[in-house]
Every structure is written in structure tokens, then in C-alpha cells.
Design a protein that fits this description.
The protein has helices spanning 12-24, 37-61, 75-89, 106-114, 125-133, 187-199, 214-222, 238-247, 257-265, 303-314, 317-321, 332-335, 346-354, and strands at 64-68, 97-101, 120-124, 147-163, 178-180, 208-210, 228-232, 249-252, 270-274, 286-298. By secondary structure, the chain is α/β, with parallel strands linked by helices. The protein folds into two domains: 8-153 and 293-354, Periplasmic binding protein-like II (D-Maltodextrin-Binding Protein, domain 2); 156-291, D-Maltodextrin-Binding Protein, domain 2, CATH 3.40.190.10. Strands 1, 2, 3, 4, 5, 6, 7, 8, 9 and 10 form a ten-stranded mixed sheet that branches. Helix 1 (12-24) runs antiparallel to helix 8 and helix 7 (214-222) packs parallel to helix 8 (238-247). The longest helix is centred in the first third of the chain and has 25 residues, at 37-61. It is globular, with a radius of gyration of 20 Å.
Length: 361
């Protein structure tokens, strides 16, 4: 039997409050920036640039790990906090400091992982792929030969959410509407730009192309500042639930020839669906495409430390699955393989072999 009043996903205000309360308890080791997210990326950049040299010397005396995640409203932040929580439970990691840092998102994380300001990052599998190859937003800096995979986590559908009164039922109907395309540096913004290019659009296709971070977009939708918002995220998600519950928002189908071509030409994309019934007013599944969330590090992360971090998650997967609904169906054998373009970190590889997760010929 569910809680009084029906499942929390059908009561988004309760779900949103539960999410904040539940995950605030995950780890006391994880301070985070304030909710004025417009300033958060700037503050984060300053913190990282000022602390990167200090972190190197600090780690020689006592290992410390900073995990780049995403918006506090998204699932990446919960991945980071869950990692810190599980690390704190692992006997071999008890003296290791762990901090999940709210950031601008995937591309920001991968760039700061490369320059040493972060030790671990959560990133979309498509931008992970481009970082390995030195393509897309990483073309100027070239391939990241030091990037290494730890594991992948949940699937992330490209999600378009619209006000019901906007009359938007499919992706192509975003033209001439007020749309939040995401903040620069985020994976969703970069993915939206790929979609726009595939459709032959630029920003002038919209009457407004807003750049709000994920934490602000659902309220902007409800206040009619924008008519649609873009989010590449695992489901169910508190921010999407808030939009559906407070202002009767709807999930929009993402399909058509241009989308089919994107999927066919890019190995990191796959057709998927957002399940029906997880948000109020959205009983039917909605077609779209998606990526995987991946957890990555570099060759500079100590092998024993990487091994212990991977073991703390994959070795306690039942507990990890309970930390967010998006993690509920994860399987260790898939997490060590799916969506990973960079080679496995030696520590992750060692755990995978010991746990029998790899079939090696």
C-alpha cells in the first residue's frame, strides 16, 4: 500500500518536498552553494580555480574527492551525494573527504575534471564521448587521453515539458514559442543545440530563447515566463513533477525524421520513452531519445581510491538503488559497460574483474 493520498509521483509538491528532505540527509560531508543558481556557476568556477592548487597538496596528506554534479534540482546532484554517503559507510574510505558540488553540468564538469579542479564528475554519455574524441565542444582542446570511466548510472531521456495552454504536442511546435533552452555549460543546453541544428533552427526560431538553469525553469514555466522547457534528466524528477503538478504541464513527444537521423548517426543516443503515469496529467508514455549518465575520473585518481569508490556503490547496489527512483532498475553488469566511451579506470577494472562483471576472452 502506498502512502496516504496516493503515490508521491502523483502528488508532485509532496514528492518535491520529500526529495529535498530525504537527500539533505544523505551526507553531512556535502555542503552546497546557495539556490541563486545564476551566481552558482560563477561561484563554483571561482572556488574551483582558487582551490585546485590547494587540493593537490591537501590530497597528498589526506585524500579528498570533489564530485562535479549538476543542478540541485536534478538527478546528477543526487548521484554525487549518494556516492559520498556510500563512501562514508565504507571502512576504507572513512578518512577520505567527499563533497558533491552543484555545477553548471556535464561540459563544465568534464572541462574541470581535465584541468584537475575536480576528481570525479557526472556527465552525459554523449559529452563523455566527445571529450574522449576531442570533438564537439572539446574540439579546441583535443582528445582527453586521461579520461577514465568508473561506471554509468541511469538513463536520461531528452525531455520537453510544456504548458498545456501553449498547445505544444510535438517538438516541431516549439517554433515561435518562449522556450528555456538551458544554461550554457549544461548537457541539456548542448543537446538542445544539437537538436536545433538537426532541425535547421537557431535561436531566432523562438520568440524567446531563455537560458535559465534547471533549478529555476519549472517555476518560470508556471509563471508563464516560458511556455516550454528542456531537460535531459532521469525520471521521475522533482522539477518536472513540480511543473506537472503546479501548472498542469505536459510531456511533449520528440520524434520525426531529424530525430531518427540523430539516433542513427550517433552511437550514444537511443530511442526511449518517458513512462506514463509518473506525473499527474500525463497518463501515456511519451516517445523521445536519450543518453546515459556516467561517472568518470582521470588517470590521476589513485587506483586504490577508485577501486574503493566503485566497490562502495556496485558492492552495495541494493542500497544505492533506494536512493533515487531513477536508480531502481540498475544492474552492476550494465553499469560497468553501458554508455562508457573512455576506458575503465584501473580501479574500476579491478573491481569489475573481482566481482565477475566482465566477460574477457
Amino acid at each position: 500500500m502506498g502512502p496516504p493520498g496516493g503515490p508521491l509521483w502523483h502528488r508532485p509538491a509532496a514528492f518535491f518536498q520529500m526529495s529535498l528532505q530525504r537527500y539533505a540527509l544523505l551526507t553531512p560531508l556535502t555542503p552546497f552553494p546557495g539556490r541563486a543558481h545564476c551566481r552558482a556557476a560563477i561561484i563554483t568556477s571561482l572556488i574551483l580555480s582558487l582551490s585546485s592548487g590547494f587540493a593537490a597538496s591537501f590530497s597528498t596528506a589526506q585524500e579528498s574527492v570533489t564530485i562535479g554534479t549538476g543542478s540541485e534540482a536534478g538527478v546528477y546532484y543526487q548521484v554525487g551525494r549518494a556516492l559520498c554517503y556510500l563512501a562514508a559507510r565504507d571502512e576504507s574510505l572513512k578518512s577520505t573527504g567527499c563533497k558533491a558540488l552543484s555545477t553548471a553540468g556535464s561540459i563544465f564538469n568534464l572541462k574541470n575534471l581535465r584541468n584537475g579542479a575536480l576528481q570525479i564528475a557526472v556527465a552525459q554519455s554523449d559529452w563523455h564521448y566527445h571529450a574522449v574524441r576531442g570533438s564537439g565542444p572539446f574540439a579546441e582542446v583535443g582528445p582527453d587521453d586521461g579520461l577514465r570511466s568508473l561506471f554509468s548510472v541511469h538513463g536520461e531521456p531528452f525531455t520537453v515539458v510544456a504548458r498545456r495552454d501553449a498547445g505544444i504536442t510535438k517538438l516541431q511546435e516549439l517554433v515561435s514559442k518562449r522556450v528555456n533552452i538551458g544554461n550554457p555549460g549544461s548537457g541539456q543546453r548542448a543537446t538542445m543545440e544539437i537538436v536545433m541544428a538537426a532541425l535547421g533552427w537557431d535561436r531566432s526560431a523562438f520568440s524567446l530563447a531563455d537560458e535559465l538553469p534547471a533549478a529555476q525553469q519549472s517555476l518560470a514555466l508556471c509563471h508563464d515566463r516560458v511556455q516550454a522547457m528542456i531537460y535531459t534528466v532521469g525520471h521521475p524528477n522533482a522539477s518536472v513533477g513540480q511543473a506537472a503538478g503546479l501548472c498542469d504541464a505536459v510531456m511533449v513527444e520528440v520524434s520525426g525524421a531529424a530525430v531518427d537521423k540523430l539516433i542513427a548517426e550517433n552511437p550514444f543516443y537511443a530511442a526511449t520513452e518517458i513512462p506514463g503515469g509518473i506525473y499527474p496529467g500525463n497518463p501515456e508514455p511519451v516517445k523521445t531519445f536519450g543518453v546515459k549518465a556516467t561517472v568518470v575520473a582521470t588517470t590521476s585518481l589513485d587506483e586504490d581510491l577508485a577501486y574503493a569508490i566503485v566497490r562502495s556503490v556496485l558492492g552495495d547496489l541494493r542500497r544505492f538503488r533506494k536512493m533515487h527512483p531513477a536508480f531502481g532498475e540498475l544492474e552492476a553488469s550494465r553499469m560497468i559497460a553501458d554508455g562508457l566511451s573512455a576506458p575503465l579506470h584501473p580501479g574500476a577494472l579491478r573491481f569489475a574483474r573481482e566481482a565477475g562483471l566482465l566477460t574477457e576472452g
